[in-house]
Amino acid sequence: MTTNAAPAPHHVSTAAACLHLFFLSLRRQFFSRHTLISAALTIVASLIVVGWGMEGATKSVRRFTEEIVVLVHSAFLMPIFAICYGTSGVGSEREDRSLVYLLITPLPRALVYISKFLAAALLVLAWTGLSLCVMCRIARPWGDEALRLFWPSLLLGGLAYASLFHTLGAAFRRGTIISLAYAFFLEGLLGSMPGIVKRVALSFYVSCMIYDAGADHGVGPKVAPEMFLPVRSSTATAVLVAITIGLAAIGLIVFARREYRDLS
Amino acid sequence: MQAQPIVEAELIGHANSVPASGPPPLVEFRGVSKWYGPVIGVNEVDLELGSGITGLLGANGAGKTTLIKLLAGQLRPCLGEVVVCGKRAWSASAKSHVGYCPDADVFYEEMSGRRFVLTMARLHGFSGRDARDRTERALAEVGMSDRADRRLRGYSKGMRQRIKLAQALVHEPDILVVDEPLNGIDPVGRRELMDLFRGLAERGKSLLVSSHILDEMDTLADRVVFMGRGRVLACGTLREIRDMLDNHPLHLRITSDRARDLAARLVQWDLVRGVELRQTGDLAVQIHRPNEFFRRFGDLVLDEGLEIERLQTTDASAGAIFDYVTQEARKI
């Protein structure tokens, strides 16, 4: 072992540290089992689209939207991507206890949270967009039209889910299980409720945006509008943006104040 | 090693381990209590740490880890405050003064040791070149320069411990907090780590080293903090703490050419509680007020021309003192 002379005066940059954390999180999350899961699910979904295309029934933008975009992508793939990368943003590091190394740096916790959220959100958006592109390209020409119409609603939905699940990952030790229960139980239950109860479900606003954008092709809810009580696309957009920002703020506050006692 | 003057050492109460008129302490615990629901972690701790090595000793559940986490800014006190270089330990700015080496054996396992330390340097906000320089210095300091390019998951326990230390040193902190650093390390590695700690202390750093291996603290720590049931039971140098244990006379073993004569003289002293002449020819002596005893004993040896082959305390080790302190604490 050696003893070294004191270092020269140095400058530290919080922005550079945040940027490094962003790319570190991006790299670590990308090279993880979540990427394998996402890729596998995208392949399965693509095969479903291939099967849908080979089916004899008449094809249309409406059918593609209702049977593929809403059922396969919006209700299944998008939440899964968000759960994979959202809950693991903080949750995985908490689970394997490496989170301690982020909490001992002089980075404010709020910036740690934001850096990790942005990395997770980027991956969710990338997989949501990529899977939508692949599925729509397979189902040309109906898919091309669906992609043009629905990409904003699906990306915004993915972002809102990412924000929700990132918050759950920071707040709860078993964030993944809670997120899965929410996405595939509560969302389904609340989303099928009559009246305004369904408005607490994120999927409701994504659906409203899709139905509004696809109205010219006859895309709409399977139940009567009096039962579904849709909101306008602009309202749904505003709500999803507000939810994204609001949940990110809640997650940030939770993360900044929380003592993670189980890390060492 | 630079000796650290101690103003006071107290048993069962507030403890202070920095000079009264010296520089302000690097770390201050001011009336700190921490509860986990109904369970108490630490209770009304007042403690100041200056430069040098402080050993933090205590049984499992004594509050060592809670104290360390409070200092590292991982926990917030329920009462009181922990101040690091004038800043609250929980704040982000205080963390640039603290290097924390956690007990948990976790890393970004996919990285090499060098990459991991470099990553920590970058997360402290150092630019690429500065971070690389610091990484190399930290790796050299822990003796890992030539072994740091392997993946962390392939490292031995000792190598992982060194990399953990390197990441804690990479930003040149004023205070190094090390939780159980000698666990699972072979004797040679222990010696090297202890030398490293000494080197850091000589450079004016403050080290808080927790360990349940009490014997190592005899040689490593400038002073010790004994903890039990969430309280600081005693703080100071081992000798100071031992001197205050009036209920537990100091045990000496003396080997002399005239053991019988010496025993006859010693038994008359009021400082001496008991003398036993062993079959080996050694004297086993129990004394009070060691400082006074040793002064008088020196005079006696010179006056009488005694030849002393061995004068050894047998219960002044960290382990023995810890047992006594714990016994005293139980009485309260």
Helix and strand layout, with pairings?
The complex is a heterodimer of chains A (264) and B (332).
Chain A: H1 14-30, H2 33-54, H3 61-95, H4 100-103, H5 109-138, H6 142-171, H7 175-191, H8 202-213, H9 225-228, H10 233-257
Chain B: E1 10-11, E2 27-36, E3 39-49, E4 52-58, H1 64-71, E5 79-84, E6 87-88, E7 98-101, H2 113-123, H3 128-141, H4 157-169, E8 175-179, H5 187-202, E9 206-211, H6 214-220, E10 223-228, E11 231-236, H7 238-243, E12 250-256, H8 259-266, E13 272-277, E14 283-287, H9 290-304, E15 308-313, H10 318-331
Parallel strand pairs in B: 4-9, 4-10, 7-8, 8-9
Antiparallel strand pairs in B: 1-11, 2-3, 2-5, 5-6, 10-11, 12-14, 12-15, 13-14
Helix pairs in contact in B: 2-3, 2-4, 3-4
Characterization of the model:
The complex is a heterodimer of chains A (264) and B (332). The N terminus of chain A is likely disordered. Chain A contains ten helices and no strands. The longest helix of chain A is centred in the N-terminal third of the chain and has 35 residues. Chain A has one domain. Chain A has 264 residues and is an all-alpha fold. Chain B has two domains: 235 residues, P-loop containing nucleotide triphosphate hydrolases (Rossmann fold, 3-Layer(aba) Sandwich); 69 residues, Alpha-Beta Plaits, CATH 3.30.70. In chain B, the strands form three sheets. Chain B has a seven-stranded mixed sheet with strand order 1-11-10-4-9-8-7, sandwiched between helices. A four-stranded antiparallel sheet of chain B has the order 3-2-5-6, with helices on one face. In chain B, strands 13-14-12-15 form a four-stranded antiparallel sheet, with helices on one face. In chain B, helix 2 packs parallel to helix 4 and helix 3 crosses helix 4. At the A-B interface, helix 1 and helix 4 of A face helix 2, helix 3 and helix 5 of B.
